[in-house]
Write a structure and sequence with these properties.
Its EC number is 2.7.4.9. It catalyses: dTMP + ATP = dTDP + ADP. One of its GO terms (molecular function) is dTMP kinase activity. By secondary structure, this protein is an alpha/beta fold. Helix content is about 55%, strand content about 15%. It is built from 8 helices and 5 strands; from the N terminus they run βαβααβααβααβα. Helix 2 runs antiparallel to helix 3. The longest helix is centred in the middle third of the chain and has 26 residues. The two termini are about 15 Å apart.
């Protein structure tokens, strides 16, 4: 029986990464020993993907080069981690997936949507997450959270206008696929968010 594929999305500073380990632990308890919960991230998730992550997060490059490298890392990620895990019946939780490319390279940077759609179809075919959790916050909240973080990467250093476009594209994607997305108000206390996450997990 095929496993389930869950993705966490949101602009930088939305707080999504805070909840991944907790959700994985909750799911593993529910699934027991029969299936494993695999946690991974994009860009990254494989040896090659992690090398590409360092380049993508810290090197300037042409927009199309950036998009192509994101999808190259994703193809490797699918082949080495995601597809084999799902075929085994394991569940996969990924910190970002293709929605992030539409949000960041498309919404944020302005790459034509049809180019991203062509790459999406080429790299993953009809595969889509079973559930996408979109952690949403106002831009000023995200900026405040990032201000006290480590040295920012090139995406975290972007302007508020960039993040406004990125957030808007995330919300557009969510409206386009309401059966797949759940939007969470990430301005709430962690405990309150976990109560909602617990309800979502119970419905899977």
């Amino acid at each position: 029986m095929r496993g389930k594929f869950i993705t966490f999305e949101g602009i930088d500073g939305a707080g999504k990464s805070t909840h991944i380990a907790w959700v994985a632990e909750q799911l593993q308890t529910r699934l027991g020993d029969a299936r494993r919960v695999v946690t991974t991230r994009e860009p990254g998730g494989t040896t090659l993907g992690e090398d590409l992550r360092q380049i993508l997060l810290h090197r300037k490059m042409h927009l199309e080069t950036e998009a192509l490298l994101m999808f190259a890392a994703r193809r490797e990620h699918l082949a080495e981690v995601i597809e084999p895990a799902l075929a085994r019946g394991d569940w996969v939780i990924s910190d970002r997936f293709t929605d992030a490319s539409f949000a960041y390279q498309g919404g944020g940077r302005g790459l034509a949507r049809e180019r991203l759609e062509a790459l999406e179809q080429w790299v993953q075919g009809d595969l889509q997450p079973d559930l996408t959790l979109l952690f949403d916050v106002p831009l000023e909240v995200a900026a405040e959270r990032l201000a006290g973080a480590r040295a920012p990467d090139k995406f975290e250093s972007e302007s508020s206008a960039f993040f406004a476009r990125t957030r808007q594209e995330y919300l557009r994607r969510a409206a386009e696929a309401p059966g797949r997305f759940r939007i969470l108000d990430s301005t709430r206390p962690i405990a309150d968010i976990q109560v909602e996450l617990q309800e979502i997990i119970a419905s899977l």
